[in-house]
Amino acid sequence: MGKIGHGYGSEWHLLRHLGYHRNYLSQKVLSVTGGNSIDWLDFQFSKKNRPLMDDREFLGLEFVHNMRVQEKWKEFWPQTGNPPNWDAIAQIHIDNQQEWLLIEAKGHIGELTSKCGANSEISRQKISSAFRKANHAFGNQSHPVDKWLEPYYQYANRLAVLYFLMKECSPAVYARLLFIYFYGENRENIRCPQTEQEWLPEIQKMNDWLGIEKNNELARRVHYLFLPVNPDGEGIRPISDNR
To answer: In the beta sheet, which residues pair with residue 53?
Structure first.
């Protein structure tokens, strides 16, 4: 977990909802995923003992306590550098099946873009191999896998994790992705959507760039939830921030 914005940003608003509005959040999550119930995992302690940095997100697949899965993950994804990390993790129950729910939250358009930062050629080759498999599994038959390396690298590697759990593991580790998009925040020099509709074309742009087939089996396990930061008001007060 990076340093949390004090009073602003997607991590802040997600923690608000987990702490003060958990029932509201849970109902919204179950509504978009089709789940019957949800159990949230507690965050890890960071042991850094610094303001707003006492806690940390789950990294990679450390929440899966299965040695075979962990060994296979080491073969699939580089174990150096920055592993995929999650803003929240839960277990949801759909019909009679328990599944992992891996959550990423966003609060402004700039958070959508990133590129692969792996410096090692071996790591880049392993990432490209993982993306190539995920690329095909999500129904992409024409887009080059290099498009997964940027400008939507973070989104792409989350999709690759879902592919790994569902298709590389035997038996499958049932999982879903949930992207939470907050709207209604006001920050100087930051493009913060004020409505759900302002997020939609940006999400479509990402899926088009990666060549995701929306009716694909795996794509149906990717969910989107749009939440106002202040449902009863007109947004929150403007915050001067240049990030």
So the answer is: none
80 phi/psi in degrees, rounded to 5:
-110, 170
Contact 29, 37 (CB under 8 A): no
Does residue 1 lie within any of the structural domains? no
pTM, full prediction:
0.89
Could you tell me if 43 and 35 are in contact, meaning their C-beta atoms sit under 8 angstroms apart? no
pLDDT digits (tens, 9 = 90+) for 94-124: 989 999 999 999 999 999 999 999 989 999 9
N residues, the chain: 243
> What is the domain count for the chain?
1
The order of strands in the sheet holding 88-94 is 37-40, 88-94, 97-106, 175-183, 222-228
Interhelix angle 121-137/153-163, rounded to 10 degrees, is 70
**Residue 3 within any structural domain of the chain:** no
